[in-house]
Design goal:
2 strands, Hypothetical protein af1432, 199 residues
Length: 199
């Protein structure tokens, strides 16, 4: 008996996305022992969506949001991780990620490819309640992890409190106002304690 071709494609995709575990990010895990990888980041965002949905400014479809969180950085398998504060890396990021999306989602059967590609595109556009929520969680997670870890990545790259607020504040506050208020309080405390440049 031959294997269902859609099943073969799903399994090929499953094995291909295992490569996300090898994409290293700049920020460290909370114990500071090593940098996290993008698969860990995506998993952590999925968990964060589940526990933070009750604090969202807009109602969100939780299954859609969690699925979006799990696929939003899948393109980093080919495109690599672009550090959040890397302005030079931003120049060609979209082109690198589009090419990666074309290749990766095409591994799946057409209906699955279309569904996951649309979630990825929706996140990139940021034009739905779910996309705004996941974007806010995506900004919040590394910020809180950096604070818990001691700000190593920020200090290594000369990132100040002001830059953290400028990059993250607007998106997080709009979608998760109570979370932003607490994150900002923690950031200000870290700046006062010398963990991050207070300027």
């Amino acid at each position: 008996m031959s294997t269902d071709p859609d099943l073969s494609r799903a399994l090929d995709f499953f094995l291909e996305v295992d490569r996300l575990k090898s994409v290293e990010r700049r920020n460290r895990i909370t114990d500071g022992s090593r940098c996290e990888n993008t698969a860990e980041h995506s998993w952590h965002l999925g968990i964060a969506c589940v526990i933070l949905a009750r604090f969202a400014a807009e109602p969100v479809d939780l299954l859609r949001a969690v699925t979006m969180a799990l696929v939003h950085d899948i393109v980093e398998i080919d495109a690599g991780d672009t550090f959040a504060y890397d302005t030079a890396g931003e120049a060609d990021k979209r082109a690198r990620e589009e090419a990666a999306a074309d290749r990766l989602f095409a591994l799946l059967a057409d209906d699955q490819a279309e569904h996951l590609r649309e979630l990825w595109e929706e996140y990139e556009r940021g034009d739905t309640a779910e996309a705004r929520f996941v974007m806010a969680v995506d900004r919040m997670a590394p910020m809180l992890i950096n604070l818990a870890e001691g700000g190593t990545a920020w200090n290594e790259h000369g990132i100040s409190r002001t830059r953290v607020k400028q990059r993250n504040g607007r998106l997080i506050e709009a979608a998760l106002p109570a979370v932003w208020a607490e994150a900002e309080r923690r950031l200000d405390a870290a700046a006062a304690a010398g963990i991050i440049d207070p300027t």
